[in-house]
Amino acid sequence: MEVVYEDNHIIIVNKRSGEIVQGDKTGDTPLSEIVKAYIKEKYGKPGAVFLGVVHRLDRPVWGLVVFAKTSKALSRLNTMFANGDIHKTYWAITKNRPAKDEDVLINWMVRNEKLNKSFIYSKNIPEHIPDDQQSFKDNKGNIVKLAKLHYQLIGSSNNYHLLEIELMTGRHHQIRCQLAAIGCPIKGDLKYGASRSNLDGSISLFAHKVEFVHPVSKTFISVEAPLPDDNLFRLLAPE
Q1: Which of 120, 191, 209, 234 could covalently link to 89 via disulfide, CB atoms 3.0 to 4.6 Å apart?
Q2: How many alpha carbons lie under 13 Å from residue 193 in its C-beta half-sphere?
Q3: pLDDT over 70 for what percent of the chain?
Q4: 196 near 204, Cβ under 8 Å?
Q5: C-alpha–C-alpha distance, residues 111 and 185, integer Å
Q6: What are the backbone dihedrals phi and psi of residue 45, each rounded to the nearest 5 degrees, phi first?
Q7: Which residues are 72's β-sheet partners?
Q8: Helix %, strand %, coil % of the chain (to 5)
Q9: Which 3 state secondary structure label does DSSP give 96?
Q10: Model pLDDT for residues 92-104, shown as the tens digit of each residue
C-alpha cells in the first residue's frame, strides 16, 4: 500500500490494479481494511479504527483513492463529491486515436446491474430536459443519467494514445463507456470492446490526480499519483 497524502482527517492512497476498495462477494481483503490496519499500527490505536469510504475505483483501475479518517471529514467529503467539488483527472491509454484531439463528450447513460455494465442510452429521451436535470426515468423504469467528460490527447506512439480526462459527472464506468462509444475503448478493457486483455488483468486507466479544498482546514489539496509500474504509461506520459 502506498500513501501519497495524510493528515488528521484524510488519507489518500495509490491503489494498484487488482485491489478492491471496499469488500465484495469475492471475500478478498479490501483496500479499506488494509488502510485501517496501517492507521492502527502507525498510531497505536486501541480498538476499532474509523475509516470512511468516500468513493471507489473499479478493481482493474490504478490510482488515487480518498478515504476519510473522521466522521466530520466523511460527511463533508460525501457532500463535496455529490456537488462536483472534488476534481479528478484520469489518464487512459487507447489503441485507437479519437477523431478530435480534444473534446467534451456528453451522453445519457443507463446502468445494467446484472451485467455490471453501463450503456449509452439513445432511445426515448425526452425532448425538453432542463439544463440542470441530471437524470430521468424511462417508460421501463430505468434511471438514465447525464454523463459529461472532457478529454485531451497528451501523448502518442505508433500504436497507442494517451488521453487526459476530467470528469464533469461521476457515473458507473463512465470513462470506459464514453470512450468506447467514440471507438476508443481503453487498452485491456474487454468489457467495453478492447481486442485483448492486459497480461496482468488491469485496464490502462489511471486515476492520476485529485484536487479539492480540504473539508476541515479549507486549504487547497492537490495530489498526483506516481505512474503505474507499466512501461507503456512511462513511454506515453508527458515529461
Answers
A1: 209
A2: 16
A3: 100
A4: no
A5: 18
A6: -75, 130
A7: none
A8: 20, 35, 50
A9: coil
A10: 999 999 999 999 9
